[in-house]
């Protein structure tokens, strides 16, 4: 539920984002600009159709196990870049059977991976860390190069064979990596992890150089790929260097990319600056969980959300059994679960939400996926029901998918007659369906006090119980009309 209305005061603090370290790449001067490097595919005993089949199975598992960011702006952004790059695959490396797709997984790390035959997954953390469209294109061109050079099945050709169809249960473990990854994987992690996601130096060098060539043809400055790798390297000092362990530096990585860039002509410029919109969208969502958090939740039998859902963090704690008394205004006192914090106040509204259930948007408005908002709407005359209808219309202005699910039921609030109704909405934070429990009661000056409980539709049952208890705890200290 995202709200804007006359009763919403802008938050006092604008959200501040940490800008990635500025990195300047100093161009290496080369005395003679040579011809671009021609990269040849390796010996491969698998058919391109088998690449497609392996990738299809693995991608299905990824989509089932990892939360996706189903945001149109973000998806459109990576799909556009992906398509530009695919259009510029050199003729001698075309694979007509391949089916390319580009998805964003809601994971915090700066990472990306591509599966045989075409499916590519970018971590939200990578898009957040990138400063330009071309930096994103750099990572994607590198991943795409592994795909079209068929590096996954080329590695498998040299090593241990794996059976198509035997990769179930290995995808998440391979992506998480390390000891946690092996625990999660059913059986051997060798097949997927080693062959599809981790490459040796030779393949890395090829993906860097071919990626640079494809970037230039698609209108991106290939030196920005080198910039992005440097950003990854610097940010990974404090985080697990997953991307780097999967894509090891083949040696003099930056210099090699820059040298290749010298041989390349950047064709008509690709769009720039579209990443700014994407950054703004992502900043409005709950922070992405880490892969480890998602993996741990799965081990404990919790799902990261239904297939195809998104932005929602998997780690919102349930309402605690302990309760606390809060006094958001001089005239009202109520009880809420002890693990809900007051997350914004002023202008007549206060939100109580659990960790991860609340987003402060850049334009200073509130948006939350779990929790309760309490506010007051000024009203001049009118019945309780008329004023409640008016309030709903205000909400509907900023929440176009808001629908009332049934009639009003009379409920007692602080000993007065109140109204309670259920609404459905599509969360602007996650794009998922959410359920809203709204109660209203009139104050002595005729204004309307409202309680708005919000929860994802599939958690409505738990939360509606909590909202009911909150409603029963309300005490009003204004003069009784
Ligand atoms: Zn690589």
**How much helical structure, as a percent, in the residues?**
25-40%
Distance separating the two termini: 31 Å
* General form: elongated
Number of strands: 17
Which distinct ligands sit in these coordinates? zinc ion
Helical run tally: 16
Query: What's the main sheet like?
Result: 8 strands, antiparallel
Radius of gyration: 26 Å
Structural class designation = alpha+beta
- Hey, roughly how much beta strand do the residues contain? 15-25%
Q: Average pLDDT value?
A: 79
Q: List segments where confidence is low: pLDDT < 50 over at least 5 consecutive residues.
A: 3-33, 182-192, 303-314, 361-365
Question: What are the salient characteristics of this protein?
Answer:
481 residues, alpha+beta, 3-stranded antiparallel β-sheet, binds zinc ion
What features would you describe in this structure?
The model is unreliable at 3-33, 182-192, 303-314 and 361-365 (pLDDT under 50). The chain contains 16 helices and 17 strands. Helix 2 (72-87) packs across helix 4 (133-148), helix 4 packs across helix 9 and helix 5 packs across helix 8. 37% of the residues lie in helices and 19% in strands. The chain is elongated, with a radius of gyration of 26 Å. It has helices spanning 48-65, 72-87, 124-129, 133-148, 151-158, 171-176, 178-184, 190-197, 201-218, 223-235, 242-246, 253-262, 275-283, 291-299, 384-398, 460-473, and strands at 2-3, 101-105, 112-114, 119-123, 323-329, 332-337, 340-346, 349-354, 358-360, 366-368, 371-377, 403-404, 409-413, 416-426, 433-442, 448-456, 475-476. It is α+β, with helices and mostly antiparallel strands and 481 residues long. Zinc ion (ZN) binds next to helix 4 and helix 9. Zinc ion binds at residues 142, 146, 199, 204, 207, 247.
